[in-house]
Amino acid sequence: MTQEKWGLLCQKLLKTVGQNNFTTWIEPLEFQALEDGVAVFTVPTNFMGNYVSQNFSDLILYELNNAGEPARRLAFRVAANLPARPAQTAKPAAIPAAASEMSPRRFAEISEPLDGLQAAPLDPRFTFDSFVVGKPNELAHAAARRVSEGGPVTFNPLVLYGGVGLGKTHLMHAIAWELKAKCPELNVLYLSAEQFMYRFVQALRERRMMDFKHLFRSVDVLMVDDVQFIAGKDSTQEEFFHTFNALVDQNKQIIISADRAPGEIKDLEDRVKSRLQCGLVVDLHPTDYELRLGILQTKVQMYRTTYPDLVIADGVLEFLAHRISTNVRVLEGALTRLFAFASLVGREIDMELTQDCLADVLRASERKITVEEIQRKVSDYYNIRLSDIIGPKRLRSYARPRQVAMYLCKQLTSRSLPEIGRRFGGRDHTTVMYGVKRIEELKLTDGQIAEDVEMLRRALEA
Ligand code: ADP
Ligand code: MG
């Protein structure tokens, strides 16, 4: 496709999206190439690329195909030669100007509220009652309880972070429910960082930043879920930062969740990071066996109200708690499937049915043992330093444990001999092969070695 043709297409896009949208979003796109069904554009910022891709890609694809250009997908590259900064600062700078252009009268004419500035819907299942507390989440739970009392703000913000499916959203909703019940006069706003961005962009587009700022600064409790989403989205981060500061200044509670510690979120501005770190930062650890079992038992109790004659054989829940990964969502999914399956076929839930019904889940969550883990366990077991297992020393007291570790790596991981060698201080694969052989022989003749290997294997597979 030629630049001219893109120019013509732009005329059509202008008609559909209107002058404002066109100037803000479409005009800055620079058409680069159309290859293998992918139309590539350069954009001034990532933020723009994301926004256009979310909001206008169907339309652009439609127009491209209509014009006989077979495009399946759009790709946006941030123009490397364009200085990114000026482009980004240019936009926020334009807003105050736009806002100040609004006379009070014009402001009043816009009577329709900003679309969807109500809070995101809360899941009725996500309450404190249904949240099972265990060692891995007790701190996060206690902190969530504290802010849900709605008393004086003691830590601001509260940041809950942890991996996928560990209960961050559940706790956030639980806080919101509790606050709504206990302090109905408080204006509690829960939303995801993504929704924050869309509302911000919508306000920009409709030139209603004053409304946006006013509304966000009038909440009493602001809860933003999955804040890592705004990383790399510069104007959104900036707006978030200002909203955040305005609320903290007014001593309003802010609650944030993220999938990792604030300091570890890539492309999050330092000033945002340090703001987040000012409050109380607590993490949800991966679940342990006891917590998983507790959650399963609670869920079974809940299912009992729907399926009163549900029968679960002894050991099934323990098996699941043992075998299924740390992610609670996966655990719940497995249980739901199990119940559905059992009630369909009208059978008791026993080990056999469980294994059949959940074969894929069980396979997927088989624990992957790493070389590092093996090296660590082995060095602990023989009471030597990790560096001695990996390092060059040839002393017997290091060489034997090293061979045991190599043997276990061969047995318990899918690493090849050269790969294993590399992780043992860059040793040759023949050295690893020799080590593995040696242990295989010793296992037959030396009871102690056989026992060591067995103990270690069990510890690693636990
Ligand atoms: P995250 O937001 O951390 O990815 P969610 O809060 O969405 O995780 O939790 C995933 C699922 O697991 C939800 O259905 C939630 O109710 C459930 N869940 C997580 N932790 C617990 C817990 N401690 N007790 C009960 N249910 C939990
Ligand atoms: Mg979540």
Automatic annotation (TrEMBL):
Places the protein is found: Cytoplasm
Residues annotated as domain Chromosomal replication initiator DnaA C-terminal: 370-439
Positions of region (Domain I, interacts with DnaA modulators): 1-87
Coiled-coil annotated residue ranges, if any: none
SUPFAM superfamilies on file: P-loop containing nucleoside triphosphate hydrolases, TrpR-like
Source taxon at top rank: Bacteria
Stretches for region Domain IV, binds dsDNA: 343-462
Entry's transmembrane regions: none
InterPro entries in the cross-refs: AAA+_ATPase, Chromosome_initiator_DnaA, Chromosome_initiator_DnaA-like, Chromosome_initiator_DnaA_CS, DnaA_C, DnaA_dom, DnaA_N_dom, DnaA_N_sf
Binding locations of ATP: 165, 167-169
Keyword Ubl conjugation carried by entry: no
Alphabetical UniProt keywords: ATP-binding, Cytoplasm, DNA replication, DNA-binding, Lipid-binding, Nucleotide-binding
A Pfam family assignment: Bac_DnaA_C
Subcellular location, principal: cytoplasm
Family to which this protein belongs: Belongs to the DnaA family.
Record-linked HAMAP family: DnaA_bact
Biological role: Plays an essential role in the initiation and regulation of chromosomal replication. ATP-DnaA binds to the origin of replication (oriC) to initiate formation of the DNA replication initiation complex once per cell cycle. Binds the DnaA box (a 9 base pair repeat at the origin) and separates the double-stranded (ds)DNA. Forms a right-handed helical filament on oriC DNA; dsDNA binds to the exterior of the filament while single-stranded (ss)DNA is stabiized in the filament's interior.
Subunit structure: Oligomerizes as a right-handed, spiral filament on DNA at oriC.
Domain notes: Domain I is involved in oligomerization and binding regulators, domain II is flexibile and of varying length in different bacteria, domain III forms the AAA+ region, while domain IV binds dsDNA.
Protein name: Chromosomal replication initiator protein DnaA
Source species: Ruegeria alba
